[in-house]
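Q: Hi! First time asking for a complex rather than a single chain. Here are the components, and I think there are two in total. Is that enough to go on?
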Amino acid sequence: MWNSKWMAALALGALIAAGSAHAQKKVVAVSIPAATHGWTAGVVYHAQAAAKEVNKAFPGVEVVVKTSPSAAAQVSALEDLSASRNLAALVILPFSSEELTGPVKSVKGKGAFITVVDRGLTDPGVQDLYVAGDNIAVGRNTAKYLVDKMGGKGNLVVLRGIPTVIDDERIKGFQDTLKGTEMKVLDIQYANWNSDQAFKLMQDYLAKYPKIDAVWANDDDMLLGVLEAIKQSGRKEIKFALGGNGMKEIVKKVMDGDPVTPVETPYPPSMIKTAIYMTVANLTGQVPVRGAVKLDAPLITRQNAKEYYFPDSPF
Amino acid sequence: MSAIPHHAGLRAEREFAVSWTEAGPFLALAVLLAVGYLINPDFLSATNLSNVVTRSAFIVIIAVGATFVISSGGLDLSVGSMAAFVTGVMIMCMNGMAGGYGGWAIPIGMAVALAVGLLCGLLNGVIVTVGRIEAFIATLGTMGIFRALITYMSDGGTIPIDRGLREAYRPVYFGTVAGVPIPIVVAAAVALAAAFVLYRTKYGRRCAAVGANEEVARYSGISIVKTRTIAYMIQGACVAIAAICYVPRLGAATPTTGLLWELQVITAVVIGGTVLRGGKGRIWGTVAGAVVLELIANLMVLSDMVSEYLVGAVQGVIIIVAMLIQRFSK
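A: Yes, that's all I need. Here is the structure of the assembled complex.
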């Protein structure tokens, strides 16, 4: 498991190496989904921030960020990028594993260093570096916190997202951790990571169950709807309403010491920045980075919230 | 619904009897309420019903507008995206003026929303009528445009309303007038006004005439372009009114605001007894249809019988069965 000290050391090493940049610019292409909801908007923000910082720090490197609205568009973008320039590296957050595996392979065939972020390709042999978060840990760490704080007893309701692997893993991590405790999940329904649907669902939960001790929405967009529904109902028995992902509004709540949302679990869109920095470190400083990096989902608390708070980011 | 006697009286002038098609949506509503009570008595609690009807208000308001468009022989797929776009523009306006105008920013923002809604409707109408493009394609195009604009305006994230305005504006969704939540009052007012226009004015008759038979309407001296364009503008205004009630609920616009509302709206209109190919609009049926849709979703959560994975399928079956009952009870 990589920790922040390692990352700092890497970045520093890369910076020192900057002095010996070549005249010929090394092009690093970054291909990511276009901003269509909060999390991908965060990815775009952090990718652009990383590009700006790297381009300034390393005159010998040019980071190019390209966003695509669909898997098909991303495939075309890859073809365009690799046809028009000689890519030293490609950092990609693939739309879907199946469709992108072939095109990424052909970019690799031309000699580019391949960094895959978040969603893996169907053939892991293609990637040189893999950077991802830990969705199981998102569910597990949230559940652990609730078990600790509630003494292993209480009634919970859960809002889940869109039926995908990401959602399944979060729910699995959560439920597995609750096993063997006296915590009871009263209900679990899809709200599609949408705040409006979460608002309605929470209203319905409140109508259905006279006593709810804690709520977990596995994404912060949904948590916003949940909090509004609780506020409207005037119910006071709900001790915790937790989310996940690290949206700035919720991280702010944690910073301000909100009693109902005192912690947050990150699945940070800034992982794209981790990937870009590591890739550039390899190109400029001969830093060995080949392998897989799984970012943990440590609880964001009042003490460390600053590290995860980006007031200028859209997410 | 208190609307039934009024509606029946109105139709009786022409037909002297309430047909099954007319009563269908209200019967469905009654059956749902009864079934809901049997499944979970909490279903009929005042809080639950008021929650459900309040949140169906947006779809009711937009669907009332859609009743005009559809009865005039058109279709508008852009309403969901338009709602998101109008919401975004309204919030940005309010935030921009919060400093200079304080609390006045709210009514000014509302006026801006209404103007933007009317313009969006005008755009749809002109493309369909003057441009002579199939309504399905034209509004599919503007649907993409409005959705992209809200995504662009928010950088893919959220556009939250100014903190200072949030509390002042909140009652528009959460407040009540004589015990009735404000969105319900607004929706009722919109439906009443729409029923008057559609059933009692010249424009309403023209709307139905254009939808029933374009050629005949043209030979009768009715301007197709004008009639349809106005229908789209009414739709735009309704979207804006819905947006005005929507913003105080969560206080933000996002690229997922109003996603798939167009399908809910069209479903509500059709459940209400309006025919998709045009010619006849039923405002009160539409209102009942929108409430029925929201009640079904509510019932799915309150009952423990349906697996979370199958909720969508059961909703689909209920809607189809409701339509079949209407069809065969004619």
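A: Chain A touches chain B at residues 34-38, 40-42, 44-45, 160, 163, 187-190, 193-196, 199-201, 203-205, 207-208, 221, 224-225, 228, 232-233, 249, 313-315 (CB under 8 Å). Let me know if you'd like any chain examined more closely.
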